[in-house]
Amino acid sequence: MENTRYLALLRGVNVGGNAKVSMAELKAALTSAGFEDVSSYINSGNVIFSAKNSADPELLSAQIEQVIHEHFGFRVDVIVLTKRRWVEIMNKAPAWWGHNPDRKHNLIVLLKPYSMSAIMEAIGKLKPDIESVEPGEGVVYQSLSLEDFGKTTSGKLASNPLYKRMTIRNYNTATKLLALLD
After folding, report:
1. Deepest in the core among 37, 57, 148, 180, taking most CB within 10 A?
2. Quick check: 17 and 10 in contact, CB under 8 A?
3. pTM for the whole thing?
């Protein structure tokens, strides 16, 4: 049986000096724990791996969280998606996402449990001339004016408690991860 490819997104590692995770150490720890073909992309918690027999992504998330806790001594939220799911997320992106060089384009990936209505309420009333947001299945596509970033409503999401239930990847990282899953 062919191995299934997965993407693990770690929330909040190696940002602002907190939750420091060496990707080389993480790769070794995950390999020791039985994960296969483990690789990482940049130092912000993007791990690609394989597993036999299509394991449940939620179970894999819990296993990776446990490996991190045992090896690094702190807890990190992890969301695991199959390659198929990541392809679907990228294919369902709105036409405007990722294409305007005057904007910052983010993919907000939501950690379970979440309420999309609560997330959209937290984002607030948009200023359409400087930002765009569209909810997807388990994700939110976001585009913010680089010049007027400080004036955007959705750019202030980090101050909301719901921010701890999401992990964000920019357009370039999201598309690179798609390529690396192959």
Report:
1. 57
2. no
3. 0.92
